[in-house]
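ok so I'm stuck.
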Amino acid sequence: MEKRSGSLIPYQGLVVSCQALEDEPLFGSHHMVAMAMAAKEAGAAGIRAGGLADIRAIKEAAGLPLIGLVKIMHEGSEVYITPTLEDALAVHAAGADIVAIDGTRRLRPDGRTLEATLAALKAAEIPVMADIATFEEGVQAAGWGADYISTTLCGYTAETLETPLPNLDLLERLSVVLEVPVVAEGGISEPAQAAAALELGADFVVVGSAITRPQWIAARYVKAMKEKAGGATTEAEG
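replied:
not stuck anymore, here's the structure
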């Protein structure tokens, strides 16, 4: 696959998403800074971080290229990843090298279209990653000026809810037609999947839960062990 140019993230690098929600045990900038430093030590090429405080702290401590966002729910809109232009400007001011925004066709809470939002950020010379869910959304967002197209929201919108993840077919289709960097994100839980994404054209890969959410990682083990124990009990009883 031919290398595309213009990325702030090293080509074919790993970006580790260091995010925790308020109800999770690792919520807090000190925890996310530790996660980011561990990722850097492992060789990560960049960090994806959520929340202005975490963005500031991680950028200062790790010094890696940083994709920043905020997650805010608004009544009447399903858009929650950096939902308004003002949010995007604040994320950039906090230290994000690239601002991730919702790149879907859904209604935005500030009333602006995605096209208008991208135009405003482009005028401010702020690099933008459009988190999309479908092929058409990716092509459209790139055409409107997004600097990066990421498959982040595939599987999380009404249109794509039943899509098995990771959707490497979507990644490959986008990588063939787009000139801007295409990013694999969403549902990548094994190293082999990340490697496959590179082979299919990803300029870099973002991995979150499988690296930085120990409660999710531990739950996978618990589930597998319970299923095995249940099967063993059934066999013994039979």
